[in-house]
């Protein structure tokens, strides 16, 4: 007869979820976003922005990496889709709000802006998942283009905004809050944005991100030396 204690022990040590290489980049994206929140609360919002950019880097290639595993089960594919959206919510829906709070958006009237931005990201991600599933069921293929601004674009837009931090001076919190409102609107406006990027476009976006980071660092050094 089987030993019930051994069976129970085996059930206890089993873990839910997937831990192979197809999801590593998504987990790294979340880890980077959480690190960014910590750095922002420690008074280093600029480093938090770099964490946001690194999350975007991971998110840009996680799907490409996952699709290299040809024998993925239906469960693994579905898990990856849900995991990606939840990770995006943390990185592009929550981290930007935390950065906003730490750069001075602490008045009560900024709360509606944070709510609108986070809801915009949430709705955009949920809509994308539903639409992606419908297209896959009906046409047996993936979406070819984005409806509404992709949440991942935050990792390039907000760093570009940060490049003007020293120029805007004391007005920068207002500039940042305005950017969040514009982005939130673009999340939910029913417009067809860029096509899903292939590897070539992803590399181009990475180059843009690296150039942004270099420009931000140079500008910060310039203003600090002045």
Keywords for this entry:
226 residues; mainly alpha; Four Helix Bundle (Hemerythrin (Met), subunit A); 3% strand
Q: Based on CA inertia axes, which overall geometry fits?
A: globular
Helix-strand string: HHHHHEHHHEH
CATH architecture: Up-down Bundle
- Proportion of strand residues: under 5%
How many DSSP-defined strands?
2
Number of domains: 1
Q: Give the fraction of residues assigned to helices.
A: over 70%
Uncertain spans: none
Tell me briefly what this model is.
By secondary structure, the chain is mainly alpha-helical. It has helices at 4-13, 24-41, 45-66, 74-102, 111-139, 154-162, 165-168, 172-188, 199-225, and strands spanning 145-147, 192-195.
Structure description:
The chain is mainly alpha-helical and 226 residues long. It has a single domain, classed as Four Helix Bundle (Hemerythrin (Met), subunit A) (Up-down Bundle). Helices cover 73% and strands 3% of the residues. The chain has a two-stranded antiparallel ribbon with strand order 1-2. Helix 2 runs parallel beside helix 4 and helix 3 runs antiparallel to helix 6. The N and C termini lie far apart (80 Å).
């Amino acid at each position: 007869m089987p030993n019930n204690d051994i069976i129970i022990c085996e059930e206890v040590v089993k873990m839910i979820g997937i831990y192979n290489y197809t999801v590593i980049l998504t987990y790294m994206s979340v880890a980077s976003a959480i690190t960014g929140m910590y750095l922002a609360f420690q008074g280093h919002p600029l480093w938090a922005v770099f964490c946001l950019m690194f999350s975007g880097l991971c998110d840009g290639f996680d799907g490409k990496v996952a699709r290299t595993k040809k024998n993925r089960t239906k469960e693994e594919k579905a898990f990856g889709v849900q995991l990606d959206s939840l990770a995006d919510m943390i990185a592009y829906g929550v981290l930007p709000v935390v950065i906003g709070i730490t750069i001075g958006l602490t008045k009560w009237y900024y709360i509606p802006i944070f709510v609108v931005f986070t809801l915009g990201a949430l709705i955009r991600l949920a809509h994308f998942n539903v639409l992606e599933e419908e297209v896959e069921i009906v046409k047996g293929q993936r979406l070819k283009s984005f409806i509404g601004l992709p949440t991942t674009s935050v990792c390039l837009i907000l760093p570009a905004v940060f490049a003007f931090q020293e120029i805007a001076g004391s007005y920068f919190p207002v500039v940042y809050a305005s950017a969040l409102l514009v982005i939130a609107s673009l999340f939910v406006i029913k417009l067809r944005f860029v096509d899903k990027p292939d590897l070539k476009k992803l590399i181009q976006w990475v180059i843009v991100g690296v150039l942004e980071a270099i420009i931000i660092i140079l500008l910060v050094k310039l203003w600090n030396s002045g």
